[in-house]
Amino acid sequence: MPELAQDLKFSQKVKNVKASGIRIFDNKVSTIPGIIKLTLGEPDMNTPEHVKQAAIKSIQDNDSHYAPQKGKLELRKAISQYLKKATGIDYDPETEIVVTVGATEAINAALYAITNPGDKIAIPTPVFSLYWPVATLADADYVLMNTSEDNFKLTPAKLEETIKENPSVKAVILNYPTNPTGVEYSKAEIRALAKVIEENHLYVITDEIYSTLTYGVKHFSIASLIPERAIYISGLSKSHAMTGYRLGYVAAPAKIMEQIGKVHGLMVTTTTDSSQAAAIEALEHGLDDPKYYRDIYEKRRDYVLQELEKMGMHAVKPEGAFYIFAKIPEKYGKDDMQFALDLAFKEKVGITPGSAFGPGGEGYVRMSYASSDENLHEAMKRINKFLQEDK
């Protein structure tokens, strides 16, 4: 096995960026024999059959050449039509939409495109832990806004305070329904945040990957209020159980999309043909598919919430996504890592420490209920046993 020559150096910036706490913990417990993993945001259900067949046909038809850099025009038109229904915004498929390798690449391309050294990105936490490492790689700084005292929602007052203390804030990242808490913002809450963003001349990068998975509430996009400031990110990983297809997209005004498209092209050239064929089918003939998943997730959510409450583990009731963010027992204080490790090694249930999601996550754990009913029932039994024995 070759060793790097001693006279060669590598990026200190990359070295200082920490890997995802979610993945680090998942890797740590995945080798435990018989463990039930509720760690990753991975739907346990399969991609709809008609969507799979579209991908298969693409391969059989030798659709195996470079696609247009921004994505197939047919797909961009389908995304445009979908977003017009979802947000009311008429995005031009030629100049205002780029198809990306999952929402992750869209986040990278957007942050690289808008930031200059010294700019700050305001990020409400706890939240998906990708945003601030990417900001660092894009040569930006960031400020994390702890929302735990406000029911895990960013308030206009908190945002205004952050901007006042950090005049170099250039953009705010919103992710809602939110990973890891599942909280959803009301229309009134979004209107109030949009007002602050507009008054302070900011971008908003709005990651709405879970927007089709809401329970009893209708999702309202901030892009519909301030489209001239919004960089809208989503994809099909969660809505159609297509995580492995790596199909995301970003939409925004043409001037900034020109820059985002440039970064996208330098990062990945273009997106896979067969994944794009599947996405076209999903958006043109599968807009009702998410309801099937949503109904199942809602039943699972209600079951897990009920069981955790019986055990004395209070959780925020999620109105979207497929996670429950539960408070750990008092005896652990805020040491969510130790609680999660003890549970994994003693009773073989894998859940993610809340501290992996930034300030405000300490003392909580995230459980994904995008797992089978059988796994969830067994996991609840094991957690209950662990809590009883650990008193």
CATH class of the largest domain: Alpha Beta
CATH superfamily of the largest domain: Type I PLP-dependent aspartate aminotransferase-like (Major domain)
- Poorly predicted regions are none
E-strand count: 12
CATH topology-level fold name of the largest domain? Aspartate Aminotransferase, domain 2
Tell me the series of helices and strands, N- to C-terminal.
Answer: HHEHHEHEHEHEHEEEHHHEHEEEH
| Overall pLDDT | 96
Count of distinct structural domains: 2
Strand order of the largest sheet: 2-8-7-6-5-3-4
Please report the number of helical segments.
Answer: 13
Structural class: alpha/beta
Mass-distribution shape = globular
Largest sheet: 7 strands, mixed
- Please state roughly what percent of the residues sit in beta strands, choosing from under 5%, 5-15%, 15-25%, 25-35%, 35-45% or over 45%: 5-15%
Query: How far do the termini sit from each other?
Result: 49 Å
CATH architectural grouping of the largest domain: 3-Layer(aba) Sandwich
Helix content: 40-55%
Q: Over all CA atoms, what is the radius of gyration?
A: 21 Å
EC number: 2.6.1.-
Family: Belongs to the class-I pyridoxal-phosphate-dependent aminotransferase family.
Keywords: Aminotransferase, Pyridoxal phosphate, Transferase
Enzyme class: transferase
